[in-house]
Design goal:
Has phosphodiesterase (PDE) activity against cyclic-di-AMP (c-di-AMP). Keywords: Cell membrane, Hydrolase, Manganese, Membrane, Metal-binding, Transmembrane, Transmembrane helix. Belongs to the GdpP/PdeA phosphodiesterase family. A 6-stranded mixed beta sheet has the order 7-8-6-9-10-11. Strands 14-13-12-15-16-17 form a 6-stranded parallel beta sheet. Strands 18-19-20-21-23-22 form a 6-stranded mixed beta sheet, sandwiched between helices. It is built from 24 helices and 23 strands. Helix 13 packs parallel to helix 17, helix 17 runs antiparallel to helix 18 and helix 17 crosses helix 19. Strand 3 and strand 4 form a beta hairpin. The N terminus is likely disordered. It is of the alpha/beta class and 686 residues long.
Length: 686
């Protein structure tokens, strides 16, 4: 529209309307040329040009208003069609302000929101998830998310659409300066799709393996005439349980079963925390010890074969953790259920002999052995390393013990070796030195730990092809995967006990020096709290072997006496302990001016168990920018599964964890919350 208010064409339409005038100019030029060639033909041509010019003039000036009216009418009808199509669009569609206020919505959007929809209200009032925090930040950016509203699932697309100059063109609505954009929203009902996907997922099959952990021990504990009845009752319990889950079960061997269940019922098994574990333990026909099960379940999105492979990994992990539990492995990770009770130690030493022979064969094939325990080594890891060092020495192999920091509890033992001329100066090496020593003929033996991140030098594990692991802690999701020999016995009192047994089978002519026997004996003594926790027949047999080898019990007790500062620090920790939920006791040791507060914290946790009605003790100590948790129990609470929840692990009665901070109060609250969640979830019983 020009200054006088008249309407003019523009763009391609204007050019199209001007073409008759342009053609008139061309015809006049042609007429002049013909006139110069032939005057009579020029006069005739002039008549036609004049007629054409008059017609073009009439079309351009007199029919222009009619054409304009037709165009306006078409635009009006076209806009009406657009408006109808948008309003009647089958997909709910709405236009929002940047703060989530609803400007406009089509009929489908109004139908989805319901009769409570009012203009000029915020979308978050109806669907709280759709607030300004999830709106797109960049122009033409699309945010897609799923929400549930009124029992239906929707896929929602939010898009930021710029409308520059809107306020100048729109006389009714003015947008704030710098915010000339709308947020468009459309919702796609995916309820039926989600239900179909869920039904497909529920129909997928989960493979599983069930083992009777202590088959031989249970059979031997019952009269011969009742043995078949006991096995029949166990079979019946397993078959009934799987049948309730609409699955199938096949007995592979006398103590092994293969099961298949649908994914839907697999989740039901998770919900009841695998009640079959407790049901089988209740079977009693005169057997002195209860039967326990290990369950391994595997689920893969790809193939059923992969599900079975996952199940095999899960059952191996369940057995390595001591049995009496269910382990689930899928693409997302590993979950644990059960494992709340201490497993009975097996009196047979067949496994120890087999592992000792295998360890000897691996060592013979190598020229050098590197031995390492866990970070901030204790008496058990140090004593076990000394035992393996003796094995390597007896096989005439060059050996080194990797240790980076000598804690206050290890210094007396460490100094005895350093001051003894019988041992080489390079008996102990740091991580950096160990990395320089590695070659193709090197073997690494890991003791008292099975988690790569907390070994003294994790890099060593990836640099050698032969790795052996000896540990008494239950395995977690992080394991040393490239180990050619894995000897993990969760029911053993300590790794030193296991090493003492290996020493008796690996060679007939091994003779421990008294200093070595003292060191291994110290590891057993500390881990069993002076032979009061987790001791079995084999524990005392190992101690007897060490005593025969020259272990001086009195000398070992003197080594581990506390100095006055440590004793006062331990008393201070005990003095500020608090009772939680009437059966847990929690204490902290911040700011104690002692060399190794973590050792004192562990000792304090052991002392706190002497308080009546206390089922588990937790001591948190700050050290080197971290908070270390020492967890102890006697027999009723599995502190290992509690520590696993906060990233730690250990044994049923002795466990630990670390917090990567120095917020003692906050970490105590986190520990309390974990305890509360596990009690409510049925993972621990008080």
């Amino acid at each position: 529209m020009n200054k006088k208010g008249t309407i003019h064409f523009k763009g391609q339409l204007k050019l199209y309307m001007q073409w008759p005038a342009i053609m008139t100019i061309l015809l006049i030029a042609m007429n002049i040329w013909i006139y110069m060639v032939d005057q009579s033909a020029g006069f005739l041509m002039s008549a036609f040009v004049i007629v054409y010019a008059i017609i073009a003039f009439i079309l351009y000036f007199y029919n222009r208003s009619l054409l304009m009216a037709e165009l306006v009418e078409f635009a009006t009808q076209y806009g009406g069609v657009q408006d109808i199509l948008l309003r009647e669009l089958s997909i709910p569609y709405a236009i929002l302000m940047d703060d989530g206020k609803i400007l406009w919505g089509n009929s489908q959007f109004a139908e989805v929101i319901g009769p409570g929809l009012r203009p000029d209200t915020y979308l978050s009032k109806y669907i709280p998830e759709l607030n300004r925090s999830v709106f797109p930040k960049e122009e033409k950016e699309t945010v897609r998310l799923e929400v549930t509203y009124m029992g239906r699932d929707y896929s929602v697309d939010l898009r930021k659409v710029p409308v520059s100059g809107f306020s100048q063109k729109e006389p009714i609505l003015e947008l704030p300066e710098g915010k000339e954009y709308f947020v468009t929203l459309y919702m796609n009902d995916i309820t039926d799709l989600n239900q179909a996907v869920a039904e497909i997922e529920d129909q997928k099959l989960v493979a599983g393996l069930i083992y009777i952990d202590n088959y031989d021990e249970v059979i031997e504990s019952v009269e011969e005439v009742r043995q078949s009845l006991l096995i029949a009752l166990i079979d019946r319990k397993i078959n009934q349980y799987v049948a309730r889950m609409d699955g199938i079960v096949k007995k592979l061997e006398k103590d092994r079963y293969f099961i298949i269940v649908k994914n839907f019922y697999f989740h039901k098994m998770e919900e009841d925390h695998f009640s079959i574990l407790d049901d089988v333990k209740e079977i009693s026909v005169g057997n002195k010890i209860p039967a326990t099960l290990s369950i391994g379940l595997g689920f893969s999105e790809d193939t059923y074969g992969q599900s079975y492979n996952y199940a095999r990994v899960a059952i191996d992990l369940a057995l390595a953790r001591g049995g009496d539990q269910a382990v689930i492995k899928d693409q997302d990770g590993i979950k644990y259920y059960g494992g709340k009770r201490e497993q009975m130690s097996k009196n047979t030493r067949v496994k120890a002999r087999v592992k000792a022979e295998a360890l000897r064969e691996f060592m013979i094939a190598k020229d050098q052995v590197l031995i390492m325990g866990h970070k901030l080594g204790d008496s058990d890891s140090f004593g076990a390393a000394i035992g393996i060092y003796k094995v390597a020495e007896s096989l005439e192999k060059k050996a080194h013990i990797v240790i980076n920091e000598i804690t206050v509890s290890l210094r007396p033992l460490y100094n005895e070796f350093m001051e003894n001329d019988h041992y080489p100066e390079d008996m102990f090496v740091s991580s950096q030195e160990a990395l320089r020593l590695v070659d193709d003929n090197t073997m690494v033996v890991v003791v008292d730990v099975n988690k790569p991140p907390i070994t003294e030098c994790e890099e060593l594990l990836g640099m050698v092809k032969t790795v052996a692991v000896l540990d008494h802690h239950r395995q977690g999701s992080k394991v040393i995967e490239n180990a050619v020999l894995s000897y993990i016995e969760p029911y053993a009192s300590s790794t030193c006990e296991m090493v003492a047994e290996v020493l008796q089978y690996i060679s007939d002519d091994i003779k421990l020096d008294p200093i070595e026997a003292n060191c291994i004996y110290a590891g057993i003594m500390i881990d069993t709290n002076n032979f009061t926790n987790r001791t079995g027949v084999r524990t005392f047999e190992a101690a007897a072997f060490l005593r025969r080898s020259g272990a001086d019990i009195t000398h070992v007790h003197k080594i581990f006496r506390d100095d006055l500062a440590a004793y006062r620090a331990k008393a201070a920790i005990i003095g500020q302990a608090e009772i939680y939920r009437e059966c847990f006791i929690i204490a902290k040791g911040a700011g104690e001016d002692i060399e190794s507060p973590t050792i004192v914290g562990a000792q304090a946790a052991n002392e706190l168990l002497n308080i009546s009605q206390v089922k588990a003790a937790f001591v948190l100590t700050e050290y080197h920018g971290k908070v270390y948790v020492s967890a102890r129990s006697i027999d009723e609470i599995n502190v290992q599964i509690i520590m696993e929840r906060i990233g730690g692990g250990g044994h049923i009665n002795t466990a630990g964890a670390q917090f990567e901070n120095t917020d003692l109060e906050g970490d105590i609250e986190t520990l309390k919350q974990v305890i509360d969640d596990m009690i409510e979830g049925g993972d621990i019983t008080v």
